[in-house]
Amino acid sequence: MKNRCQVFEKSIGLYIIVLITLFYSCAEDKGNYDYKAVNEVIVTGVTEDTSVMRGEVLNIHPVIGRSLQASEEGLEYSWSLAGKEIGTNRDLAYFVPETLNVGKYDCRYVVTDTKNGMKYFVDFNVNVVSNFSWGYYFLCEEPDQSAVLSYFSSKEGTTECLHATKIGDYALGKQPKAIIDHFGNISSLNDYFYSFNIITSQGDNPVIMTNNGAFMPSGLINDHSFIYEGDTFNPTDAVYMLTDAVYYVSNGKIYSYNSGLLYRAAKHDKEYYWSNPASAYTYVYVFDELSKKFYILKNQIDDPALGLVSDPYALDRVVEIKNQPSYEGQTIIHKYVSRAHVMSMATAQTGKINLISFEYIDFKKATEEEPAVNEDGHLLEMETLPLAGADADTKGVLVAENDWYFVVGNKVYTTPVLKPTLADFVTLPDDIGKPVAVAVSAKETQLIIATYDAGSPKEYKGSFAIVDLMSKEVTLHRNVMGKCVVAKGYDSNPWW
Fold it and tell me: Which residues have CB under 8 Å from 227's CB, separation 6+?
């Protein structure tokens, strides 16, 4: 019993000692629980999405604040692009190398407070685009007929053209003819750009496909692209269908292009020599140089009784346009197919302009008076307007389906589509040469007029004017390129 009491007393004593030790420890540690507020870092001024061209400097100037007391003492910085550090300064000044692939990159800005080890993150995207991004394009022809693609950025402050004789490693051909464009999504960039075909009649690759975002070859078309051997590819024009299918005119014949291959030429029951294709649907308005008339081409119907076999890859069927005159002696200035199945066209003759429109009804409904269900291509109207000085060199364009603009010498004229009446619009300086091409900007707010002065002593004899359609203000860029064949205005995204 005595032993048990002694053990108990020792246990009680030990317990009291532990309690006393804990009490004094807590009393000594009271300062550890006196919390202080953190002077947090607040970062603003970094745009979530930004764009920069290769070969330019990406400048970002963040605004750094603190939650309690303004101070940047003890802060460290880090900038990264696609996981690779590109800067350690407060502000970013990163030279984007020409070798950096075009595309959209995930980026991060990290601010570290070295006094407490806390890090603050800002995530953003940088869209790296080519030097040939949003701006004005001019397909030009050198004296030896070689093609040069000249580009003038729409970026404020631009003064000079860039000139390309290659797309990537592929040289442009000779006898430049056309730029055929198509607006749509480029998945590699997760953005919208123009895809376009640069067409030359001669060369190793008469058609080079690219886009104004990456400006790298996305497709090549040449003699080896034919699914059947025997044809030669000397394209003069092309057209996009509503289905995104492309048709090329070569040696007066029309070919479809699918999955990297040129199909056979369309087969017809008589001889035609096609040019000037235009479309907004699954058929093509096209001009016959032999009869000097327009026709409609589409896929053949499938009718075994008549021996007709449908072929979805060839425009074998020819539809005549009723009441159509011959356009002998006229120069086709411009053509446009609306979503209403109407093609509007302007031609020029000596001293006058002709405004013409066609309509195509694919499936005409049967009536008691006309029980047959058939199609109908017909001339809607044709109106002639006198215009002094008009001739084969006259240039023109239809803007927003509402107004025509024509360039004769150094004068620009306009007329509404409805109730046409020509009126003076603006006068250009008379020392910039003859007009050689005209286009409208992406948002249809500007005219782009390319000129050429063969007698100029300058290295570049080609100039261009930008005409604001609202203010009529004219901006000139003199002697910046060669002789333009076709102009395009990819100066901005038309949807924003």
Answer: 261, 262, 263, 264
